[in-house]
Write the structure tokens for this entry.
Amino acid sequence: MSEDVEIIVSKGDNSEIEPIFRGVVVGRPTLCAYDETIEKRDIDINRAISLVEEELRDKFESGGNSGNGEIFLAQRELLKSITPERGFKSLDEFKDRINIEISKIEDSSLSSKVMDFKDLEQRVLSRLGINRVLHVPDRKSILIADDILPQDVERIESSNIKGVVLTRGSLTSHSSILLRSLTIPSIILNRDIDIEEKISDEIILDSIRCKLILSPTEEEILEAREMEDRLNLEDRESFQSRFEIAKTQFGKKIKVLANVTDLESAKRAKDFGADGIGLLRTEFMFKEKRPTLDEQTNMYRDILELFDDVTIRTLDIGGDKSLPYISIPEEDNPFLGLRGIRFSLYEKRLFEEQLLAIFKAHSGRHVKIMFPMVSQIDEFTQARDIAKGVADRNNIDISNIEFGVMVEVPSLILAIKIFDKEVDFYSVGTNDLTQYLFAVDRTHDILKINPLSPILISTLRIIRDTAKRPVSICGEIAGVDEAIETLINIGYDRLSVSAKLIPNIKSKIRSM
Ligand code: PEP
Ligand code: MG
């Protein structure tokens, strides 16, 4: 066995190691370092800021390299929120402002945003000619860093860095989300590494078993390499069979659908073998500016042309998502306020216009429309009545449109028998359901709920056993490797997940 420098702790064993993305990699340990260059540029701080705003908007619009475009939109909003109306007087004033923001949140539940502020600062500095980019090694490596910036992840994407160990960080930080979508084996260690002397030339990161072996034996390296090759081969095989339907060994067909935000991500989902769209998060097209009826209609039409099975979720605004052109009354607890369908019933014109756009786009096709954050039957019936009114007034036949609800507020579960009489389908949003079941903010950095909590699993079982209408799952749990078999055994046969996961999930189902 290796010596005391190996860090082997299995998950569930008081381990503090958190896997960001699971996999095995053998590589040379590389400590995080930056290459710095300075070139003279003739622009001022405010011009640099607006260039960064444009850059982030472009990244958002192109979906980011990884399909996580919304991260860049959130960063852009953060940058705007700290920029005074008349701009900054100097670079120093900008830097001071960043430092103030960081010191406000450093030890708070929002500390994962610290890296976003640092990222923004660096993006602005680069525009001024002060470049500082992650050093990428020329040999296959495992990066060891305290924490990294979202822009560092962009650099990792096509580099020799094939594994990442963060000694600190959070699974919900933007860097972690981006790493996950790059599908690079990565972990958060939650401790420091003593890098003096004892690290070998090659180390093993096994984020499947939550192991980091800093001075492995030759046998361990051989074994890890075999595992790495096998996983890579499996990935390639899964990718090749991604368009085939997923059926368990017992012959049970499971639809693997995609969660998307716009046409671009829907096209990507098609490339990854999605059997349809299980969740179209429409609010992303509303965030920047109010889309016109035609713009909306075109987007829905283009997406409906890609797939036969599409579930469109109406606007899920409120909570931490606001619209620059609509004012919502100030709320003490926005996550418990005018969110989802409650917002749509409050701001009916936007809702009616969205429904009309979907109706116009559907051209008789079968489409599912789903309302978010429904907690009582009246919210659903009111929303559906509004929809019917829109269709009647515009003489559109919507007999092929089904209406359903997200199951994300626990009160709905207690009323499923009542909902069964009204809705056509359900889709369980485990992200919010977990937040409201446990009364823990889903973005909280300190309080963390086990995504496979037995309480959540039994809740999912209750929903499946009680509901008489079709139920799918579109929350993150549907893409968690360890959860899939349980979900299928409980009786779920429609899983909606992020597109990149689809090939592997289909393979997993075929092996069950
Ligand atoms: C959920 O809450 O699980 C969900 C899928 O919706 P969102 O993450 O968009 O709130
Ligand atoms: Mg939700």
